[in-house]
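call fold(seq) -> tokens
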Amino acid sequence: MEHSKSPRVSLGLPVYNGENFVSEAIQSILEQDFDDFELVITDNASTDRTADICLEIALRDKRIRYVRNARNLGAAANFNRAFELSSGTYFKWCAHDDVLDRGFLTDCVRALDDNAGHVIAYPRLLGIDETGQHTSYVERVLPDMGGSSPASRFRLMVAAHGWDAAMFGLWRRDCLLKTTLHEPYYGSDCALLAEMAILGPFVHAPNAILYSRDHPTRSVRLPSAERLAWQNPDGSTANAFELSTRVKHLVAIAYRHRGTAPLGSTLLHLLAWILDPLLVARFCLEAVGVVSPQLRSKLRGAGLGALRRIHAVSGRSPG
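ret:
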């Protein structure tokens, strides 16, 4: 049997009940002006029309591979499965509700080809709404990482609390294989980006554009209980311990890569981050949740409301 060579780029699209937007997301991938890619769709046992939509499109394009999980594995495991089934030199996770500009892959591939020591090429990220109309949202661009140490890059990404442009940028497969991948808790992507930053700097591909869609069923908009079930359907509880779990994960990452970034430096950076007053308040909320999840929810809601009022006055986004 003749085997074709692996594509330069693999795109993994994990999805669960994404019938509203998945067709548009796939179409934006198929319309890329860079065509040496495969698209691996991992369907987390959707109960809507997601399977029908994906299979219909896959029949028309041999670059698409549709895989349906026998049961809902949770978001983290489904993201990891999309990567594990891929084979390209470069890899990108795709959200089922986002849209790529036509030159996205060309510009990100060029950025990694031209910067051999960099591990992620990230685009400009602009906001769109449910209907695809542009919003005012523009994700920040972080400082240039070139020339910075592994420990300082780790500190930068820990403090960033996540970064969608990089999360949904283009990654070097060989570097991603050295990581812990996604763990089954909400916020694991933040830790994964910090781990990748230890392995190398990120490079900005400013001509690549990712349109990030905001809508009511987006994971960040879900109530805590639904968000927990989305991430880990077999282990959801009333008290998330999301931040505490992330800290534990970051400590494990620091130890794992102690040969690249001195353990003392990464742990000091982590301690400085943990002592931020807002984070201390979040740890206290998690502790309150042990005794009373209802009180935790009320206090969390009051805190978020206060933050929104503060940011509204200052003209800044709380994200």
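The radius of gyration is 20 Å.
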